[in-house]
Amino acid sequence: GRGGRTRRRWFGRGSAQESLLSDEEEGQEPGEGSGLGPSSNSTSFFYLMCLSHTLSAWEDRMWQFAVPIVMMHVFKDTLLPGALFGLVQYLGVVLLMPRAGVLIDQTYRLKLLWYAIMVENSCIFGTCGALVVMVVRDQRSGGSPGGALHMDAYMLCSYLAIIAFGVVGEVCNQIQTIALEKDWVVVIADEEGEKLSRMNVTLQRIDLLCKVMAPGVIGVFLDLFGRERALSSSLVGILVLALFNFFSWPIEYCVLREIYETVPRLQMKKITDKEVVYKGLVEEEVSGGKGEKRTVLESLKLYVSHHVFLASLAYSMLYMTVLDNGTLITSYLTWREVPSSVLGFQRGIGAVVGLAGTFLYAWLVSSSGNGGEGNGGKVERVGLTSIWFFVVTMAPSVVVLMLFGPSWLSDYSLIAGMIVSRAALWMFDLAETQVMQERVEEESRGVMNSMQVATYRTLYCVIQGFGMLFSNPRDFIVLAFISLASLLGAACVYSLWFFRHHEKKGGAGQAYSALDASA
């Protein structure tokens, strides 16, 4: 602050209210003395938030499953268009999320979600339109014009539009995820550790159920007319996606608005030195983009200097693996002639094991000692245990592959390892999520979580790059070894963070605001 006083802005119901708080008053809970304390029944509104989260997660899982399939129906002889779409989408998120993080921290909660929901759904409708153009064009031509990789002007423009809509839509989706799961839920839980754990577990279970069920539902429509009329099935699937999106997004926003207007603390968001942000935006317009570079560097500096950085880095390193039910290991096991039914069964059982892990996490957190006290917080200790258990359950599969090479034994060892390890993986995911919720100060949640998204997306692109470098299925052992090294490194990094910072609760005094530093 300047001169012993810090400028804060609180967002009241329907208007922005500005107040000056002295240093002594900064410890005051938002709303104290104003009749706007935490809502006594705030937990009940969490279940309304679960409704919005379910609709959003179901929609996301359907899209993630449907778009590659529709592209394969159009580009029948190559994986390149689908792979390029995924790669560009990931790279777009890496480049744009640091900027989005600043936007999250410097925008009032309901206004942020209104724009994010509107833009994302506009992108979805645009994607539907572009997919329809591609499918209809392909039907009329009797196949991809000139071959799978030679598109005419209509197909090319539609494909480029899908990529552009995909990048913008995914960034907006990440903004909503960070705002709701890393900010709103913390406020609704009144920052109570055990209540926050229960809410996180509930949201995680919703994600798992949507991950299992949503692809199956949309898959019925995408296969409605069989392989002979795949393009007709694609049109039906696109129509179903568009209709679901059309009817779900108003419900999502109305539910969130109801929660916002009923939980007073959501209406009081800390925005530090907002005039600095406005000044930066003006300077960016004048400097022709230099401001954006400065913002990214400041976000990176804040992220690396924050005391939760190593915990976040450990979480991000778990994405640098092929041992994840993803495209690379699925392609390898398919090359090994493992039946598709076995792979589908493995994913279903893995989801059930992951769901069991959420129950175990809730039990461990509730039965442990006092969080954040003594020899480390209970959430942090569960995270330490679960990440090492994850490494221990996956390591034997890689060892078997290294000893016996591509074989029946190594194939099913990989499958068994991925199934058993899901419980530990989801437990660590829950623990790290709560660490980021509790130990990152409110005014930095957007930047910190956006930088985490950019980091794990970057590491995911790295392992995909290794996959392109070692594209021969016989070289999969190299990818497995790199993955195991990344998992082991993640466990070591998290252990280092735990023993270095386990007695420090909260981010106050451990980090500084990059925006303040630029003032």
TrEMBL record:
One of its GO terms (cellular component) is membrane. It holds the Pfam family FPN1. Residues 1-11 have a biased composition (Basic residues). The chain crosses the membrane at residues 79-100, 112-133, 153-172, 231-251, 302-322, 342-365, 386-406, 476-499. It comes from the Eukaryota. Keywords: Ion transport, Membrane, Transmembrane, Transmembrane helix, Transport. Residues 1-38 are annotated as: Disordered. This is Solute carrier family 40 member. It comes from Chloropicon primus.
